[in-house]
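Please, structure for the following, as tokens.
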Amino acid sequence: MLRTRWQAIATILFAAVLLRTWDIGDPIIHVDEQYYLLVGDHLLHGAVPFVDIWDRKPIGLFLLYAAIRLLPGDGIVAYQIVAMLFAALTALLVAKGGRMLGASRGGAVTAGIAYLIMLELLGGRGGQAPVFYNLPMTFAGLLTLRLPDLAQRRAHDAIIVNGLAACLLAGLAIQIKYTAAVEGAFFGTAHLWFLIRARARWPLVGVATLGWAAAGLGPTATVLGWYAEHGLFAPFWFANFASIGLRAGYPVGQLAMRLLGIGAQLSPLVAGVILGWRWRSDSARFGVAFGWLAAAVIGFVAIGTFFDHYALPLIAPLAISAAVAMGRSGRLAIATLGLSLGLWLVETLVRPDDAPGARVVARIVAANQRGQCPYVFIGDTITYRLADACLPTPYAFPNFLAYTTEQGAMGIDEAAEVRRILKGRPPVIVTSDRQLDIWNRDSLAAVNRALATDYRRVMTVSRSNWHTIVYLRRDLQFRR
């Protein structure tokens, strides 16, 4: 059916457009990417990440979103189209990787499409960090898959150059999300192993290892050096490396349910990997692919919170390793695509369309802010961007000040920061009637006291299975 390479490419690109077009223009696909776009926008206006606006993600992610903000529009459609391009290119690399392992063209295309569908199912519908960094990591993975052939030919120079490219790609990915360092370490180690197997002289091995390490660590070292030069090493180090260890854990039962959900959705690919190992024709390359997958799993487990989008880095190595089996077993290919497409269709049809309500909230906030900073205590951070509003705090991501999971993890008294914001009497406060067990009770109490005495409710909008509520300061006249 797919007789040429161009037909295969066209099929994967068509699948990317078909799957992701549904969400173009939706400003609230995921809370994380709303905030990434906000930080990127403020970076363009001179804000310094980790100082003027706070988060734990590497600055490379925010630089990417800042670059996207240079495109026309409010940034929402732009980042989603760029994310579609990244997803499509990664899917093409997945198909290429499948072919490198010996998969048929049909199996490789199935793997590429499966990658795209699994992105959708695991929280990658928009611009989550792995949607972007999976592209350089998959490229680096394909370069690493070349190693058995290069070692067999004792192509020392080619292995060294190959390793520099793979480690640099991983280094760039690390500046989008730090967990990519685990896979990057594997790529570097694999190149070292195969260079030794190619019987390179030890001085050459030593120089190559230093070069690969420099390529992989270079982007992060450059950023660290910039912050140190500007006297900002301490806030950079705390935000990027120290604060994550201070976060409270989630209940074991909740983590188990998340893992079960992720495992169920990835199970067709896992079955394909197991069968692919049985039917492998190139054990050396399959070994490299399995090592890459193991490194991705370690990175996933290391975070420990098991949100579905944290599993996005697993999809590319899983799909590549499953491509051989999906090419040999039509039943497996049909089952993989059928089940995943069925889940995607159900989720798409039952998902509430909350985008219009989010835009209405932003419009009301914009009309009533009166040159002051509104406060989104619980709600969509895209409200600040759509309302072109200033931020009342560097900790603008609502979870930071509102959830117990962040309490004591940011080097501040979160409730005191909420009280400081409220002391400034923001003209508008956005909150929610959502019921959670992880509210920071002191922060919530401070907001509730202020709302009861100084604010009145002016709007309630449906949001998922709860409501977003907009409050206006009592001394202000409501503007629609």
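The mean pLDDT is 96. Residues 202-229 form the longest helix (28 residues).
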